[in-house]
Specification:
The chain is 52% helix and 22% strand. Helix 1 crosses helix 3. The longest helix is centred in the first third of the chain and has 22 residues.
Length: 109
């Protein structure tokens, strides 16, 4: 079962990343990366973590993606050949910000 969820996570990561780059209109200077997908064991929901560069555009990008979530979900249903397609929820991945903060603290010492 664990291997199945891992495969679904990877599939969703690839497909959602592709849909975001093709369907949503962001400036060329904005880089959006799907860093992680965590699907629930019952396949009902999936948390999709995104990383945005430059980081000051993160909140704006998340708002745009969430405003288009219905369309993204619909396109995902059409593209994937699965019985159950998880309902996606987007979150910002702030792990790189924590890493940068730790590095700054280490450099100060």
């Amino acid at each position: 079962m664990k291997l199945r969820i891992q495969k679904i996570n990877e599939l969703l990561k690839q497909e959602i990343g592709s849909l975001i780059s093709k369907e949503l209109d962001f400036n060329r200077d904005t880089l959006i990366t799907i860093t992680e997908v965590k699907t629930s064991p019952d396949l009902i929901s999936a948390k999709v973590k995104i990383s945005v560069l430059p980081t000051f555009k993160s909140e704006q990008v998340l708002r745009v993606i969430n405003s288009q979530i219905f369309n993204l979900q619909k396109l995902l249903y059409a593209k994937l050949k699965m019985k159950i397609i998880p309902k996606i929820k987007f979150e910002l991945d702030v792990s790189h910000e924590k890493f940068d903060r730790i590095n700054q603290l280490i450099k100060k010492k």
